[in-house]
Amino acid sequence: MRRTERLFQIIQILRGKQRPVTGRALADELEISLRTLYRDMAELMAQRVPITGEAGTGYVLGEGYDMPPLMLTADELEAAALGAEWVAAQSDPSLARAARDLVAKLSEAIPDELRPVILDAGSRSIVPGTITQDIFDGAALRRAIRERYRTKIAYKDTKGVATDRVIWPLLIAFLDNVRYIVAWCETRQDFRHFRTDRVETLTPLDSKYPGRRATLIREWEAHSARTRP
Question: What domains appear along the chain, each with residue ranges and CATH number?
Answer without folding.
Answer: 3-61 (1.10.10.10), 74-122 (no CATH), 138-227 (2.30.30)
